[in-house]
Write a structure and sequence with these properties.
The chain is of the alpha/beta class. It has 15 helices and 17 strands. It binds adenosine monophosphate.
Length: 400
């Protein structure tokens, strides 16, 4: 891959693709960035380029405007927050490409910053349209991709532009993500413990299978959240009205078989916090052996499961955690997820956490600083760990 440090950026127009797909709150002119983690994550790259006298043109998508202008998805609030964090003005043209944008970009001087409008206002972005990629490429002399979280999509700003701009490189965040996640693909330090949770087995089956194939005796896969329900059902447990995916029972059994063939433990909850619905105020603790009764729902792991999971995590040399252990948005069912945040943070081994919900739980428990790498890309990190090619990364690595 070309080196970021060696890219000639001095007084040149540098287009930086970032992932500023941040949550917003409020409406109209009162809209503001609700969580600026992704903006902060790109600052080292942006500051390094400004220090090297680049003329900075930053671009990102925001939400799903589906190829049309949508006022509530304008980059306005993002430009405001970026200007505060960079402590310098950020100019925002009123479109993504066009004569006005070209003039603004060409008038931009070293150390100045332009943020393009939401890339997905243009249908050519998601279609990876060559004309749109050309229009973006014409705005710059060099290109940097720091949008790890968007690099699993073959979109124009991620794939098309580096094919057209000879001087390109990954940004600092992109390199840090690839290096950290690479530790889960090759040269894993064992014992390795993968902690997965969240709503659906179907979303994470690929990663579970890929990881199981990389694990060896003494490693463990710890499963919580609604995902665990389907695995428990596959073991013949009663789950009452809990969220389960009956069509995936066979897939769960194959994960058990693959794991046992490699002497890898699959660790499931031994008790559950149950409630009458997603917004129940109180949790009842049920032992998995007793089964979840009637239409009660398993909504979090129980205290004995927390202790069992934490015990396994404590012995690991490498830990990967993705996905909440329960309906953590509801404080009555947040305990299991917060307990995992603490357990992973306490682990002396190499720790990597990905996925918005797990990262939110880390932030809520104040433990993000105790994690070796917090990934900014949920879907992209899962695809990378699965061993799938990320189109944005491949496009950067391709020589001209
Ligand atoms: P994911 O996006 O797959 O990581 O799933 C996150 C979502 O899973 C969160 O919104 C949780 O509320 C939900 N979730 C986790 N555990 C459960 C559960 N036991 N029952 C229902 N939903 C759950």
């Amino acid at each position: 891959m070309p080196a970021f440090d060696q890219l000639d950026v001095d007084n040149r127009r540098v287009l930086v693709r970032v992932d500023f797909n941040v949550p917003l709150r409020g409406h109209g002119d009162a809209r503001e960035v609700a969580d600026d983690t992704r903006i902060r994550a790109a600052l080292p790259t942006l500051r390094a380029l400004l220090d090297r006298d680049a003329r900075l043109i930053v671009c990102s998508h925001l939400g799903r405007p589906k190829g049309r202008y949508a006022e509530d998805l304008s980059m306005g609030p993002v430009a405001g927050r970026l200007a505060e964090l960079l402590e310098r003005p950020v100019r925002l043209p009123d479109e993504v490409v066009g004569d006005g944008v070209t003039k603004l970009v060409n008038d931009t001087r070293a150390g100045e910053v332009v943020l393009l409008e939401n890339l997905r206002f243009e249908p050519g972005e998601e279609a990876n349209d060559l004309d749109f990629a050309r229009a973006l490429a014409k705005l710059c002399d060099a290109y940097v991709n720091d949008a790890f979280g968007a690099s699993h999509r073959a979109h124009a700003s991620v794939v098309g532009v580096p094919q057209l701009v000879r001087d390109h490189a990954p940004g600092l965040l992109m390199s840090a993500e690839l290096q950290a996640l690479g530790r889960l693909v090759e040269g894993i330090e064992h014992p390795f413990v993968a902690v997965v949770g969240g709503a659906k087995v179907s979303d994470k089956l690929g990663v579970l299978v890929a990881l199981t194939e990389r694990l060896s005796a003494g490693d463990a896969i710890v499963i919580g959240g609604a995902m665990a329900n389907t695995f428990l059902l596959a073991r013949g447990r009663e789950l009452g009205g809990s969220l389960v995916e009956r069509d995936l029972l066979g897939a769960c059994k194959r994960v058990f078989d693959k794991a046992s063939a490699r002497d890898v433990r699959v660790i499931l909850p031994v008790d559950l916090r149950c409630g009458s619905g997603l917004d129940a105020r109180e949790a009842t603790i049920v032992a998995v052996g007793d089964g979840v009764a009637g239409d009660s729902l398993a909504l979090d792991i129980g205290p004995r499961s927390e202790a069992s999971f934490a015990g396994v995590i404590a012995t690991a040399k490498t830990v990967f955690w993705n996905g909440p252990m329960g309906v953590f948005e509801n404080p009555a069912f947040a305990q299991g997820t917060l307990a995992m945040a603490n357990a992973v943070a306490e682990c002396p081994g190499y720790t990597l956490v990905g996925g918005g919900d797990s990262v939110a739980a880390l932030n809520a428990s104040g433990r993000a600083g105790d994690i070796d790498h917090v990934s900014t890309g949920g879907g992209a990190s899962l695809e990378f760990i699965e061993g799938r090619e990320l189109p944005g990364v491949t496009a950067l690595a391709a020589a001209h």
